[in-house]
Amino acid sequence: MTKPAKDGKSASGGRPRQAARPGDRTAAKEAKIHPAFLLILPLFALLLVMSAPRDALPSRAEVPPKAPAKLVAESELLHRGPTVSTPSVHAITVTALAGGRLLAAWFGGTREGAIDVSISTALFDGRQWSQPRVVLRPEDVSNGSQQWVRKLGNPVLHVDRSGYVHLFVTSVAIGGWATAMIEHFRSADGGQSFEHQERLALSPFLNLSHLVRAPAVALKGGGFILPVYFELGSKYGVLLRFNAQGRFVHRERMDGPPHLLQPWAVVHDERMVEFYFRDAAELDPRVWLGRLDRSEPTRALLIKNPDSAVAAIPSFDGASWLVRNPESRGRETLVLQRMNALQQPTDTMVLAKGREGDEFSYPVIAQTDDGRIHVLYTDRRKAFAHRVFRAQGL
Amino acid sequence: MNIETLEVLHRLLLQSMPLIASAISLGWLFVRLSLRWLTKAWLRWPSALLIGAIAWIPFQGLPLGAYLSPLTASLSLLSLLLMLASVQLGQQRLFPASVWVLLGLLSLAVGLDLFAVFPWRILQWGYLADASRTGQILTALILSLLIFLIALKRPLLAGLCLLPAVFWRLEWSPSPNLWDTYLDLPLAIASLIGLINHFKSTKGDQHG
User: Fold this and answer.
1) Which residues in chain A have their CB less than 8 angstroms from residue B178's CB?
2) Is B114–A203 a contact, with Cβ atoms under 8 angstroms apart?
3) What is the pTM of this model?
4) Average pLDDT, integer, range A312-339
5) What is the Cα gyration radius of chain A?
6) B169 and B66 fall within a common domain
7) Which of A38, A43, A49, A209 to mutate against chain B (most B CBs within 10 Å)?
């Protein structure tokens, strides 16, 4: 070791020594630490990671009742959705409750993306909708999360095995939907009031651009999978896994080209879960289909999709009922189609057909325990339509 | 202390993390900007604490720190610890170039995975649950290498930099993903700046 010269210059060269800085004593102290420390620390890091449990997360889905193969529309009286009190509404979500009831949530305000947008809920008792209640405003989310939120977007409801109602809401602090985050709320009183659980940490880089739209898939064992999507630049589906206690534990990027979003799950059996995707491709957009177990590559179906959300429920023999806008452009028409196991439409019912520029969009579909199939969708951003179907012949 | 109390404390800590992150960022920023005057380490801590406390001052129904949360809430535990360390160490360089290179490359890889450019699911490897064996081994090797490189220059800081992994393993971190506790956007930018600074100083040394 070279000995420093008294005149402030190092013994080996002519360069002046730097003046001692406040932290230098700490650095000198650190330099004396035994070399074994150099091995122990990384070894401890190695052990920390390698000691993590490698139990595979449950992936067997709870199988919902299958929708009938033939459907017939119920009374026209039921075609009105929940009453709304804001000039603009969008993105309704529903979850089936016991006794043929439905709980719905949506966002409404002066317009989509406005700071006065709030989340409202209403209950359908099998015959009519209750008066809507505002359950979340941006300030409620800010207070709950201790993080500033400027506006709210798509909500999603899920009732877990313990009876808790989970509400996932898209929130934005800075920028637009491409910088959105997902807030997790939970209700222990059937959706009357919600308590903030967490803002889901989904990426290390400002936690940007994750949005919700479609309902969760319940898993055997109590957890659930929430399909969400990423849409900053690339667009792709993301699967979020929650354990039986409702805690977020895992994020998984879904396969497919970088223009697929809003995956909607259809559970055919406990190991066979398919996802329909909205396609944001500029050329020839199609509905795409992927599988949870990746047993087949995600593929484009031979049905068009004008970059609009789809919804589906399983039917018998690998078939499903799919709600979608059937044109390659525009959302003026909305249909309910039965897709056979080969993903060919076999039966089509027109739900709405408007004039050019009209919008019937963001459908949701759910089956209640009384066997009825409910389809709800945004009706020109002013209201929600509610169509009810039952098995033909009953 | 029973398990319920620990769980409540854990929940309270996680709920307060956005404000704590804002407070640390404010305190660090103040110390960083006033290093010329705050030459003694013992002076820096009370200043940082005082400025950090601003995060809890209410403004229009929310603590001031909550308004900073779009930038500070996603800061990694490593960033927060490094900020605290730099309050103590002043103007000293925290890491050698090799650490900045590793952090920069890791940020790049996770970023490319996030934007679906990479076929590899690096972000996914960081989860405690359902980790693939390959992912687990690679994650462990990357973390060990990071800690080793830091320990070469600063063994005590290396010990501190292990804390995020300990918190992650004990499920005490705000995110279940290891990378969330080690990477963030400011750190990715800092790795670039750290690298530029290092090469600048190396060049200066060669010609000096």
Assistant:
1) 49
2) yes
3) 0.90
4) 93
5) 26
6) no
7) A49
